[in-house]
Design brief:
Length: 307
């Protein structure tokens, strides 16, 4: 069961949320209409589209109108194969959990009823179900998926491990997706519009200079670079930077050795690494981007010590 997240009522978090049916919800939770509601859940029914209101937690931000029209034509000709998922919220009223594209396309096709799987979900679980089912089923772009992961963490109090388990993903996958939210808006927009792939975007994370990021982004789009090509470009930039650093102050083989160690550590821990020399010894700094990312690095350190 999802963790408690909405103690103050949905209206406090979502101004567009209609609380006019809250009394009905309270009655259902209190058992007044419980038996009748239970008779309506865990079944697939043909519901009037007018009886289904949108999901206030919809993670999808953009709906491609051309693809929506294509889906609408398909539904008009062949019907809807995969039902939407809803919950009962009152007397013959329902709220969408997942399937907004299908609901919109059905309305666009002029069809008045839609097959829907009705499940029992309370207010505290709705946001988790909505995000999880949409991330699993819908063709969300990488930024929408990353935002969905972050909402599960921030609004449902899940850890990255719990998000990964709920979605059947590796924890590293969740971490890498969340890191996409640290990218500049121009790169996020290119990723959302499919101008570049997730692999392209991840390669740009390690580039610190914003102008260089944008220059690489534009070349990758204009020249239709593969992920390997942008990785090579980023690597060459890093090599040139390292060469400049050597000319400026790295005069002996010890410094070259430290650079090699820094590169190995960066690859092992998938994060930025700084090695700073002192008169005697020095220090190693590993950056982390969240508490869960810190735990990931600690786990890697501990596993390294056991080998």
């Amino acid at each position: 069961m999802a963790k408690k997240v909405l103690g103050r009522g949905l209206g406090a978090f979502f101004p567009e949320y209609d609380e006019s049916e809250e009394d009905t919800r309270s009655e259902i939770r209190g058992g007044v209409d419980r038996e009748r509601v239970l008779q309506r859940v865990n079944v697939i029914k043909q519901l009037p589209v007018s009886d289904i209101r949108p999901n206030p937690y919809q993670p999808r931000e953009d709906f491609d109108e051309i693809k929506l029209q294509e889906l609408s034509e398909s539904i008009r000709m062949h019907g809807l194969i995969q039902p939407v998922t809803v919950r009962a919220i009152g007397s013959e009223r329902y709220e969408l959990i997942s399937g907004e594209r299908r609901l919109r396309a059905t309305k666009m096709a002029g069809i008045n009823h839609i097959p829907a799987y009705v499940r029992e979900v309370d207010d505290d679980e709705l946001i988790a179900f909505a995000l999880i089912e949409n991330v699993q089923r819908e063709q969300l772009n990488p930024i929408e998926i990353a935002l969905g992961y972050r909402r599960l963490i921030e609004e449902c109090n899940y850890t990255q491990d719990e998000v990964a388990k709920k979605l059947g993903k590796n924890r590293s996958t969740v971490t890498n997706m969340l890191r996409l939210l640290n990218l500049r808006p121009s790169i996020q927009q290119a990723l959302k519009s499919s101008a570049i792939s997730t692999g392209h975007a991840r390669s740009l994370i390690s580039v610190e200079d914003a102008k260089i990021q944008d220059r690489l982004l534009n070349k990758a789009i204009q020249e239709d670079w593969s992920v390997r090509q942008i990785e090579d470009a980023v690597r060459k930039l890093a090599d040139r930077k390292n060469a400049r650093n050597r000319l400026l102050g790295e005069k002996d083989q010890k410094d070259v050795h430290l650079m090699e160690i820094s590169s190995r550590l960066r690859n092992k821990f998938s994060t930025r690494v700084q090695i700073k020399k002192k008169n005697k010894g020095g220090e190693i700094r590993l950056e982390y981007y969240s508490d869960d990312d810190l735990e990931r690095i600690i786990s890697l350190l501990e596993s390294t010590g056991e080998q």
